[in-house]
Amino acid sequence: AAKDAGRNRFSYFTPALQVAALNRMRLTNDLRGAVKAGQMELYFQPIVHLRTGRIHKAEALVRWRHPLRGMVSPLEFIPLAESSGLIHEIGEWVFQESARWIQRWRTDIHPEFQVSVNQSPLEFQREGGYEGWMRLLTDLGLPGQSIVIEITEGLLLDASNAVTKKLLQLRDVGIQVALDDFGTGYSSLSYLKKFDIDYLKIDRSFTRNLAPNSSDMALSDAIIVMAHKLGLRVIAEGVETPEQCDLLAQAGCDYGQGYLFAKPMPAAEFDAHLRGQPS
Ligand code: C2E
Ligand code: MG
Ligand code: MG
Ligand code: MG
């Protein structure tokens, strides 16, 4: 009974916000050491060439298997990793793990296989960093071109010198850049020209509402035409239906990614998936 009273008092006097804050603190604490404890897992989702249906690219998506809570979404733990500084350790792990798989897939699947790796603004703005990546890639016999770094528009909006410098350094070593979730931020088309981006990923909020003659179709059409004129290739995110896929292909979109093709899957499963593609 005393225990019950204690619990009631707890819930009565603790506003929901405080509970959420406590939850974040606990999770952040658990996140320390999660990499070393082997709790991170890397999933891959295919990026499909729409004209041929071939898979020569994939996006790496990190997962955290919490010992008590089970799978925690990156939408929940990446912000905690950022505010605690743990993001750098996680990012390094994601990059190393990705490079290991790319080496296999370049050897066994396609010589130009590429993996895209997400970078939060904090990671991208960090001085250097890419030197370590290049050492790792070189050790594995991989060129910079085997990696695409996915960044978001916000980063370009307040493009500090650090961002501009990093983009130039990546270009020098051959690492490519994709603009993720395009259309959700303050999309400024002039950035596409100014910054020498390789891929533009149309956000899934556009893909979701694609229908002939819809405004999202008009926008997607225009984005694709413009991107091509600027020499970028276009990847549509969140392709879930054959109709969306057809409309995007008709509009000249280069690649599609989404549940229609496959959900993100554990690396070993994706490896088997690749080996199963008809040649
Ligand atoms: P994102 O980079 O935009 O990744 C695409 C997200 O959309 C993934 O969510 C993917 O599972 C989901 N998705 C793919 N196809 C479909 C579809 O057809 N329908 C729907 N509804 N969703 C689809 P996920 O894996 O939960 O990742 C969420 C976000 O977390 C990513 O968004 C990315 O911003 C971030 N993230 C993931 N891995 C990393 C990482 O290694 N480092 C950093 N910094 N961020 C990461
Ligand atoms: Mg991404
Ligand atoms: Mg995205
Ligand atoms: Mg997203």
Automatic annotation (TrEMBL):
<protein>
    <submittedName>
        <fullName>EAL domain-containing protein</fullName>
    </submittedName>
</protein>
<feature type="domain" description="EAL">
    <location>
        <begin position="24"/>
        <end position="278"/>
    </location>
</feature>
